[in-house]
Write a structure and sequence with these properties.
Strand 9, helix 11 and strand 10 form a beta-alpha-beta unit. Helix 4 (about 70-85) packs across helix 5, helix 5 (about 115-130) packs parallel to helix 6 and helix 6 (about 145-155) runs parallel beside helix 7. It is globular and about 60 Å long. The chain has a domain at about 95-110 and about 225-425: Rossmann fold (3-Layer(aba) Sandwich), CATH 3.40.50.1100. It is of the alpha/beta class. The chain contains 19 helices and 15 strands. Strands 3-4-14-9-10-13 form a 6-stranded mixed sheet, sandwiched between helices. Strands 8-5-6-7-15 form a 5-stranded parallel sheet, sandwiched between helices. The protein has a two-stranded antiparallel sheet with strand order 1-2.
């Protein structure tokens, strides 16, 4: 079965995987989603138990990529992508309580979960562009981790230039340096005077400027690109199978910013993986908690926190979920997104809030609680988590007593060394960087500081490309 992709706003033409990947954001402003959900039976899942991660990835991704890659090419991409990881299991599980596991997603080259998808996406881009004899300009927005993962994935790609926008002085120093110290001619960093939401709005404005988009052959690496979400679906399957799936249900707690990671869990559920609950773990920037609880999706001030990758008000991938719960009504989604643009808010209908609540549980973990989780877990077990993972663990701990018989998996989205100040504040010890990054603080940085003005950004991109 080969999947076609349709836009959440209903106006763009359906297309195959390769075109959806290169296009990124649909021309009607929507996000691409599969027209139908591939199904994996319980018997098929049992056959995948005990298989290496690459085997599971190949099986789960095959229907999504269709004829874009033959079996040998897809296999080669996955082996190269995950051959860069520092743990042979790729995304190993670590038990922290009798029925609570952490899934470590940070064993890739930039120490964050984004590597799991980005290493695959970079190789797919280079393969397709080489085959087509084309170049692409990848433009992305990051709250911290997407940028470094994207840069690392394409820094050696012959057919790609990459521009990454990050909010100036609103990432951790490690996050920033992982982006700005990469000395490759195709890598360009822009520090935006504003928030991550400003960066994301600039990105969407450039995607919606069709003349500019065509002029520079623009594509995207953010999770607005379906090809970014797809590889993340795999680790839900891999971890569930390791804990007895599909013959028992699993609950996942997911530190959530742009909603892509937890949405990937929803995709796994729609494909047939028995997932009992998906906990949407937010920090004090609690728009998703309000939206999922009361339907109130209203923008407020973004508060800088010790978990900066979650300091977001507009979670792009939430649109994909809304599309499903509104029975794939593109006109309705267009209306909601217009309300958000014009009024800074929209209200989700009660029926749709109830449908979301069938699978999702929102939890908000504040700064004090985040520090307490890091401190307590370290004191009890010696295990150290970064502040984003701590938000997920804190949210999971609230849900565990109500359902002690269901295994709980919290997604560990970043290595604690990426956020040494927060970890040191909680534990008294600064976690060291791994050996391959030991000299990070000594490397020269290269980036431009620019205002949150789309014409200035477009002019910079044109001038840089020459």
């Amino acid at each position: 079965m080969s999947v076609r992709y349709i836009s959440t706003r209903g106006k763009a033409e359906p297309m195959g995987f390769e075109d959806a990947m290169l296009t990124g954001l649909a021309h009607d402003g929507g996000l691409y989603v599969p027209e139908t959900w591939p199904q994996v039976s319980r018997d098929e899942l049992r056959q995948l138990r005990g298989k290496p991660y690459v085997d599971i990835a190949e099986y789960i991704m095959r229907p999504f990529v269709g004829d874009a890659f033959d079996d040998q090419t897809l296999r080669g991409i996955l082996e190269r992508a995950y051959g860069n990881f520092k743990h042979e299991l790729v995304c190993p599980l670590v038990q922290i309580d009798p029925n609570h596991w952490v899934m470590e997603l940070f064993h890739g080259p930039t120490l964050a979960f984004k590597d799991v998808a980005m290493q695959v996406l970079g190789l797919m881009y280079d393969n397709v562009l080489a085959r087509r004899g084309q170049r692409a300009t990848l433009i992305g927005a990051t709250s911290g981790d997407t940028g470094s993962a994207a840069i690392e994935a394409v820094r050696h790609c012959e057919h790609v230039n990459i521009f990454i926008m990050h909010p100036h002085n609103r990432t951790s120093e490690v996050q920033r340096r992982q982006m700005t110290t990469v000395d490759e001619p195709n890598v360009h960093n822009i520090a935006i005077e504003g928030t991550f939401d400003d960066c994301q709005n600039l990105l969407k404005a450039m995607f919606n400027d069709r003349d500019f988009r065509d002029e520079v052959s623009m594509s995207g690496v953010n999770s607005i690109n379906w090809a970014r979400v797809m590889p993340q679906v795999v680790y839900y399957f891999a971890s569930a199978l390791a804990l007895g799936g599909p013959d028992r249900e699993i609950t996942f707690s997911v530190p959530t910013g742009n909603f892509g990671d937890v949405y990937a869990g929803y995709v796994a559920l729609k494909m047939g993986l028995p997932i009992k609950r998906l906990i949407v773990a937010s920090n004090m920037n609690d728009i998703l908690t309000r939206a999922l609880t009361h339907g109130d999706h209203s923008l407020t001030t973004v508060h800088p926190t010790m978990s900066p990758s979650m300091d977001i008000q507009i979670s792009s991938n939430f649109e994909r979920l809304l599309f499903d719960v509104y029975d794939r009504d593109g006109d309705k989604i267009s209306d909601l997104m217009l309300q958000l643009k014009e009024d800074g808010k929209f209200q989700i209908d009660e029926q749709q809030v109830a449908r979301i609540a069938e699978h999702f549980t929102p939890q908000c973990v504040n700064e004090e609680q985040t520090l307490a989780v890091i401190k307590d877990l370290h004191a009890r077990t010696g295990y150290v988590v970064d502040p984003h993972t701590a938000v997920g663990v804190g949210a999971a701990d609230r849900e565990l007593p109500a359902d002690p018989g269901t295994p709980m998996v919290t997604l560990a989205t970043a290595h604690p060394a990426k956020f040494p100040d927060a970890v040191a504040k909680a534990t008294g010890t600064r976690p060291p960087l791994p050996p391959h990054m030991a000299d990070l603080y000594d490397r020269e940085e290269r980036f431009e500081v620019l205002p949150a003005d789309v014409e200035r950004i477009q002019g910079h991109v044109r001038a840089t490309l020459g």
